[in-house]
Amino acid sequence: MGGKVLTGMEAERLVETDGRITKLVLRSAGSSPGEAHQVPANAVGDDWQPTRSSSGELYFVKRNDRGDYAALSSRCTHMGCPVALDPATGGFACPCHGAKYDRHGLPTAGPAILPLPAVAAELRGDAVHLAAAPLQSATEYAADYFVLACDVPGLKNILAHSEISDQALVSSVARLGVADPYIVWRIWLDRELRTQYVPFYTVSGYRYVDSIAIYSQLQPAYEDWARRRRGAVVELHAYAVEAHNVLPEAEIKRLMRAELDELIPELQGAGVIHDIYMMQQNFPRWAPGDHAGRPGVTTPFDNLFLAGDFVRLEVPANLMEAATMTGRMAANRVLAAEHLRENPIPAVALVGPLTTGA
Questions:
Q1: Where are the beta strands (DSSP E) in 136-287?
Q2: Residue 68, φ and ψ in degrees, nearest 5
Q3: What residues have CB less than 8 Å from 268, skipping those under 6 apart?
C-alpha cells in the first residue's frame, strides 16, 4: 500500500505548529542526547561500572590499560534499549532483543550491527567528566496523522522532549507510572520432558515463579528442537517483583531454578544449554485513582492518537488485547477523518449477563 518501515531509528520528539502536530523527529537508535555527567575519579576501576546521570541516563565507565578513562552509552544500537553488563563475557547484553557486545562495545551476536556509542571521558580535578557526543543529524518526517504506539516510558520520553502547548495532555502522560519489574527467563534444557496436560500453568506461593510456559509443547520451532535434541524449552515468568526481591541476576536465576525443580521434579539436575533472561520495568501501573487521569486514544490534537496497553478504555480489555484494540481505534479515527469506512471492533458487554436494570 506504499507504506514505509524505518529500522534502526527511534522517535525523539513531536513538532507542533499552529495547534497541530506537523512533524516527528527521528534519530538513530542508540543515539545519546548528549547529557553531561561526572563521576568521582576514585570510584572508577579497571572494569566497566554503571553510572546514571541526574535524569537517569545510564553510562558505563572504566580506566583503560593506559590509565586513561573510557566510557560507553548503555543504549543498544538495535532499538535503543538499555544494555546490561554480561558477567559471562565481560561485555554487554541487551535483555530485550538479545544483542550482545564484547568488552569494547563491539557487537558480537544478535540484531545489533553498530558498536555501543562512545562517550567522551575526561579527568578534571578529582572527577571524570562524561560528555556524550551530540546528535550529528536528525530526520524529520511530516505527516497528516500521528499514532504513538509505545510503552509508558517511551511515551513519557517523547513528550518530555517535545514542545507541546496542551498542558493537560502533558500532565496526563507525566502522571503515568510503571509497575514493579517483571522477569522472563527462557531455558533450553538437555533433558526431555514428558507431555504435560497443558503447555501453560499459573502457580502461586513462590517467591518468583508465578507462571510456566512449556515452549517445547507450545510452538512448532521449539517442538522440533526438543525432538531433535531430546531436550525441553521452558519459560519462567515472575511478574511484579518487589523491591527487596530485585537481586543480582545470578541469584535470581538460582532461586527460580530451584522453584522450577520443585514444580517439575523430573527436570531436577537437567543441564542448561542456552538461556535468555530479561528483567524490565515498562508494564503500566494500575494504581487506585489512575484511571480517571489516564490519556485516551484521542488527544487534544485532532491528528494525534495514542495506542497501547496503558490507554484508558471504556470497555473491559487489558494487556495485549487493550494494545490491539486501541491501535485499531486509532486507525479508525484516521479513517473517519478521511471519510472512509471504519473497521468494526467487537467487544464484550459492559455489564454481566446476570445484571438487571436499575
A1: 139-142, 146-149, 182-189, 200-202, 211-214, 232-238, 272-280
A2: -80, 180
A3: 261
Q: What are 34-43's pLDDT values in tens digits?
A: 567 888 988 8
C-alpha count within 13 angstroms, C-beta hemisphere, residue 81: 21
147 pairs with which residues across the strands? 305
Q: One-letter amino acid identity for 80? A: G
Q: At what angle do helices 167-174 and 152-160 cross, to 10 degrees?
A: 140
Task: Report the Cα 247 to chain-centroid distance in Å.
Answer: 19
Task: Determine the Cα–Cα distance for residues 350 and 145; give it in Å rounded to an integer.
Answer: 30
pLDDT tens-digit profile of 219-234?
Answer: 999 999 999 999 999 9
Predicted pLDDT of residue 220: 94
**Phi, then psi, of 52 in degrees rounded to 5:** -115, 140
Question: Can you read off the three cell numbers belonging to residue 169?
Answer: 495532555
Closest listed residue to residue 77, CA positions, set 20, 122, 10, 132: 10
The three cell numbers locating residue 233 = 524449552
User: What amino acid occupies position 350?
Assistant: L
Long-range contacts of 316-320, Cβ-Cβ distance < 8 Å, separation of 24 or more: 316/347, 316/348, 316/350, 317/347
d(CA 66, CA 192): 51
Distance CA 146, CA 140 (A): 13
The per-residue pLDDT for 55 is 66
Sequence-distant contacts of 194-201: CB under 8 A, at least 24 apart: 194/266, 201/263
CA 83 to chain centroid, in Å, comes to 11
**β-pair partners for 9:** 28
Amino acid identity, residue 82?
Answer: P
Contact 149, 327 (CB under 8 A): yes
- CA-nearest of 22, 25, 27, 26 to 145 is 22
Provide the grid cell at 276: 535468555
pLDDT at 353: 78
**pTM metric for this prediction:** 0.74
- Stretches in the chain below the pLDDT threshold 50: none
The number of residues making up the chain comes to: 358
